[in-house]
Amino acid sequence: MNEIIDPSSVDRPNSYIGKSVPRPNAAKLVEGRGQYVDDIQLPRLLHVAFVRSPHAHATIGSIDASAALRLPGVRRLFTGRELAQHCEPWVAVLAHLKGMKSAPQLPLPLERATWVGEAVAAVVADSRAVAEDAAAKVAIAYEPLAAAVDMEIALDPATIVIHPTLGDNLCFQRLNEAGKVEEAIAAAHRVVEATFLSGRHTGATLEPRSILADYNRASGKLTVYHSTQAPHMMQGVFAKHLRLAEGDVRVICSDVGGSYGIKVHVYPDEVAVAAIAKIMGRPIKFIADRLESFVSDIHARDHRIKARMAVDAKGHITAIDVDDLTGIGPYSVYPRTSAVEGNQVVNLVGGPYHFANFRAKTTVVFQNKTPTCQYRAVGHPIATAVTEGLVDLAAEALGLDPVEFRRRNLMKDGTYPRTSPAGMKFEGLSHEQSLDTLIRMMDYPALRAEQSRLRAQGIHRGLGFASFIELTNPSPFMYGVGGARISAQDGCSVRIDPDGSVMAATGVTEQGQGTEAIIRQIVAEAVGVPIETVRVLTGDTLTTPYGGGTWACRGAGIGGEAALQAGLAVKQAALTVAAAMLQAQPDALDLSDGQIVDKHSRQPRMPLAELARIVYFRGDTLPPDLPRELLQTRHFITKQYPFAFTNGVQASWLEVDTETGMIRLIKHWCVEDCGRIINPLLVDEQVRGGIVQGLGGALYEHCLYSPTGQLLNASMADYLVPMAAEMPDIEVGHVETPTKESLLGAKGAGEAGTAGAPAAVMNAINDALKPFGAKVFAQPFTPERILAALGKAQVR
Amino acid sequence: MTREVQVSLQVNGEAVSRRVEARQHLIDFLRLELGLTGSHAGCEHGVCGACTVRVDGRIVRGCLVLAASLDGTKVETIEGVSDSEQIRDLQDAFIARNACQCGYCTPGMLLAAAALLEANPRPTRAEIREYLAGNYCRCTGYHAIVDAVEATAAARARGSRQD
Q: Is residue A794 within 8 Å of A785, Cβ to Cβ?
């Protein structure tokens, strides 16, 4: 066994994998010395403000910018027609999502605005403030059209078709089926059903979308400073759609102030900024303000799911049947597409459980609202809420404790590899061990006793559970097979420098998760050097190996394995040189704590710095044919499984005030199995942060639209996000089932919290409301909806 | 169109004199005029707390204060507070506890937490959560931030007992 994956070796020098090492980049962040895009100033910089559509659907008539252009400091106005001369349009479909359709999209629309907040014209000025002044003076003659707002009637013949060339408002439909659902339901002991709503919400990154594009006409090169998760993908996008060579585009991504999937998409207004920079030959900056973030950042999770579950008399699930409808806005978002969330729902429903008969349909429709796309835990919170809601209904119908019902139905540990009825391949999961761990952590019997004691005093507390699976380490089956130029492979270059320090450049990116920290740990351990001597470089397409970036929980599992292999390779290269210098065999030597040591006695033979000095400055003293390659690059891509699934279980303990409908979260628990844990401190905080993001969608966050398609709460004051006072303490536990696809064994951990939290909260609320015979299935679970379920208020 | 106002103030201990647009907020003044980019604009309507800075010793929202109103005041930002090492222990606790992820909220969060510890040296977890309820963090879920503030308070209490 390689010592790196041997847990008994944790006390040897440089064993950093598995330890809670602080993040090297946190020091600058706590002193305000990070560098976000808006912190960058360049000579001759101009700023953009967009004129955005006030209508959900309208024909764009004349655009009169004369008053705007008269303001001092205003340099230029761009319309869709002008930018279209310089840009190739895109159509966001994936070939493996059969039958999917969408309409061509440009940086700014030519004829029609199709959602409130769509950028229609761009004003360029000396400052953002002046650009905003000017944008307010641009007069656009709109002719309002009927709007398709409600997804439930998007396919009705009476509803306007947003893109007449597509024939209807259907983007995508898929039926995922296994076994015989109707027969199983007919033969069932009990069938439970409910209609679940997931409220449309958005990422609300604290740093808004930010881009600074600089085109140098003399060199023909476009440099884009971008707050993004996927610099190499964006390099390709800017090149293709602005008609540049890929090699002439450099994307630099320094600090990113939160992303959560929001910053992995191609935004038309950002392509407009790059196009303007190319046309004007100057640096152009666009930082979204909060009001435009709400209407132009992608939204997500706008789903209605009708679902039922059949169970037999022994308490086993026999069938799950779900019908999902989702509204995605007027365009599918490029290049990941907006059909993936619905597709995930039909792949993930029922995921933790053993049963035979499955039917899941998703219908993805266009509507005149802000486009939706992938947001942290894509589809998982929806699928988990549906599954776990049905599980609790079934347990109740059978008179079983919800934990006991789960024990009877969860996939048994030790029965892997296996494939779910939905077709998902699982290499190795730990549902039973995770549930056992959770029950121990939370002291389940004591909480139930407390619940019934308080019940007698009129205090209504509830406990809710949610088992879940999470898709991580995606292979090309996620996007590449559909034709998207999105890399599933990632790489790392590791270099030993003359002072014996180590530089690692990786294609995975940092947005606060701790990517740079874990790459540093892995490389330090693989090479055998003190962690302080390792520097990590991310987020620059010119200097890092080509890769996908950080999304879908791939940073640790994919980027980490590439770093491990590159580190081991550079260590081998160093030992080859050392063997020649010390007249020893390479396999009799080792590298430890920055020293070449005798492998068996562990006696130091030579500092790595001395070896590097000789290689770089006195190569003449080495044998002429000796390889001295102190820079090694390795890539990693998963090959055996389309995805590395993880699993876990969460529990929520809360109190419902049945007079006001207010919910107080008391405690939350999560046990998660992300395979090999590289840094427990970082994994725990990924889980906690993810849970709170899930709690936001479950309780507060909702993009509320008027019947005419106006977003009614598009400000931070009106759109409620979780703040410290409402959030509970969260206990996190772990089970480790490493993936065998890599030496490192790591899977992803960033989305598990978000995947399970809404379901746990929903089940806890319904547990609290049990004496009243009331239930809620519509997120967010607002006081109004709680009171309505209790018969004390009408839902507006 | 926009009137300008002459202001003279102290920023992080240095004297600063500028003609500012009457409409310019403190956060834009700090970032655009002085290059102090450690404070961040998050919502520009006083909700998220990312622009929290000190004016005459009290924390304010940089997006709700006009620079023109600050003649004769003393402004401190995360850069100044860091250079003077006033909250080094709190910053170290944030690093050790991984209480900052993307870092965008962190300068404001630190200044708010420092103000809390000044007013209430041994806050309960509930009091910490209540006090920081005006500072939005999307990454951490707050638990680690509460831990870091609690640990700093405990360490300071131990330190003062030893004095």
A: no
pLDDT at A1: 37
C-alpha to C-alpha distances, A771 to A6, A455, A460, A762, A787, nearest whole angstrom: 52, 9, 9, 16, 14
Taking only residues 142 to 201 of chain A, the set having a beta carbon closer than 8 angstroms to any beta carbon of chain B reads none
Nearest chain B CA: its distance from A137 CA (Å): 14
Chain A residues near residue B78 by CB distance under 8 angstroms: 31-32
Concatenated DSSP letters of A569-613 = HHHHHHHHHHHHHHTS-GGGEEEETTEEEETTT--EEEEHHHHHH
**Amino acid code (one letter) for A344:** Q
Helix axes A680-699, A752-768, angle to 10 degrees: 50
Contact A402, A422 (CB under 8 A): no
Contact A346, A178 (CB under 8 A): no
Contacts of B67 in chain A (CB under 8 A): none
Q: For chains A and B, what is the number of CB pairs under 8 angstroms? A: 184
Q: Is residue A774 part of a domain?
A: yes
Q: What is the spatial distance between Cα A672 and Cα A684, in angstroms, rounded to a whole number?
A: 9
Dihedral of the alpha carbons of B21, B23, B28, B32, in degrees to the nearest 10: -20
Tell me: do A456 and A604 sit in the same domain.
no
What φ, ψ does residue B96 adopt, rounded to 5°? Answer: -65, -35
Q: Is residue A574 within 8 Å of A537, Cβ to Cβ?
A: no
Task: Please check whether residue A603 is in contact with residue A590, taking contact to mean a CB–CB distance below 8 angstroms.
Answer: no
ipTM of the complex: 0.97
The domain boundary residue, chosen from A608, A636, A664: A636
pLDDT digits (tens, 9 = 90+) for A91-106: 999 999 999 999 999 9
SS3 A330: coil
For residues B55 and B16, membership in a common domain is answered with: yes
Residues 6 or more apart from A371 whose CB is under 8 A from it? A115, A298, A299, A328, A329, A330, A331, A332, A333, A338
Percent of chain A with pLDDT over 70: 98
Q: Which domain holds residue B116?
A: 87-162
What single-letter amino acid sits at A356? A
CA angle A455, A456, A459 (to 5 degrees): 40
C-alpha torsion sign, points A529, A530, A531, A533: negative
What's the rounded Cα separation, in Å, for the pair A430 and A368?
43
Q: Of the candidates B42, B94, B141, which has its C-beta nearest A30's C-beta? A: B94
What is the rounded average pLDDT for all residues in chain B? 96
Query: What residues of chain A lie within 8 A of the CB of B37, using their CB?
Result: 32, 35-36, 38-39
| Interface touch A32/B82, C-beta < 8 Å | yes
* Number of neighbours of residue A629 by Cβ within 10 angstroms: 15
One domain for residues A438 and A580: no
Considering the domain architecture, whether residues A29 and A57 belong to the same structural domain is answered as no
- Distances A767 to A190, A193, A389, A694, A784 between C-alpha atoms, Å: 20, 17, 11, 19, 18
Select from A557, A556, A519, A560 the least CA-distant residue to A536.
A519
**pLDDT tens track for A37-59:** 999 999 999 999 999 999 999 99
CA distance A158 to A146: 11
pLDDT band at A552 (very low <50, low <70, confident <90, very high): confident
B54 at A interface, C-beta within 8 A: no
Tokens of residue A354, six digits = 């053993």
Which amino acid would we find at residue B80?
A: G
**B77 lies within 8 A of chain A by CB:** yes
| List of chain A residues whose C-beta atoms are within 8 Å of the C-beta of residue B35 | 41
Q: A637 with A559: CB under 8 angstroms?
A: no
Identify the domain containing residue A222 by its residue range: 37-145+205-296
Average pLDDT, chain A: 97
Residue whose pair of structure tokens reads 């046309």 in the numeric block: A279
